Amino acid sequence: MDFALTEEQRMVQATAREFARERIAPEAAAIDREHRHPAALVAAMGELGLMGITVAEADGGAGLDNVTYALAVEEVAVACASTAAVMSVNNSLVCDPIGRFGTPEQRTRFLPSLASARTLGCFALSEPEAGSDAAAQRTTATVQSDGSWVLSGTKNWITNGPVADVAVTFAMNDRSAGTRGITAFIVPMDTPGVTAGAPDDKLGIRGTQSSQIVLDDVHLGADAVLGQVGSGFKVAMSTLDGGRIGIAAQAVGIARACLEASLEYAKQRTSFGKAIIDHQAVAFKLADMAAAIDGARLLTLRAAWLKDNGLPYGRAAATAKLVASEAANDAARDAIQVFGGNGYVTENPVERHFRDAKITEIYEGTSEIQRIVIAASLVRDGVLN
Known about the structure:
10 strands; 4-stranded mixed sheet; 4-stranded antiparallel sheet
């Protein structure tokens, strides 16, 4: 869909690409090695409008569309998947639901600072016993006689958790009502009783800090409810539909980083008297990477375009995430093969890309969950919808 981009979309893409190459890429290896949250880069992206791309201008954001957002995430992910994940969570999982379901007062209170990266958000849905089965919430929300709430429970693997200022949080307010008994809340992280655990020690995206969040009798006003009481599961699922577009774009960026590094290396590395790109076994790996990346990018931009135009996009987003995340993992594995022994050492970036790629098949819905979403849509809507 590159051929269908507007001038404004191309301009934002170019801005994100320049920033990623000049500012992010030189720090990416150190961010990974040091497990360092890229605070200065996030602040700079806030100044560029990249941390609240689709937030309305009236709410302090850039007021742009989801196609633009996907293009920008890809460019950042080419340079550093960790930085792209921080960006994606703040945009897709925090700003988006507050913008769509929040009251005017909530939007005014939270969105301008989130969109400018003066504050950072996280999405507290997963729990030790509620990963793919998001409906199995054990965190409780108990309403008080004055309409206020008390939250108690533990959230797991919360991206941005250790560095977040606000958490979009889900809790069970009526267990007998099933998914209709879940409510979403906006929880400032400095609220008494909220504690973020130590950062997780992860395989990849090591600069994107994640942790448990413990809620110990957290008292919130009635104005903390996001959306309607009992509509939390709807808020979560619709938010994840949009979030999958961001993760698909991140995966496309990781795959592209693998291809760019592999192509450059294959032109320079020689074996049996010629550059290894002149060996068909290597050239075909690069061709397969390029074809898969083109397909994944088109699927991602299609899902973003559908969302921008108010059309159903759940299946398209699931398809984009499934295809893009698997393309990223295939590209990372093949990049290691192209680099050979050099690809297995940390001085070359494909080792980092290999580790970073894996998470795209897991968070915001595993590949298995995406297949469930797609299959259910086929049964419900048919093949051509």
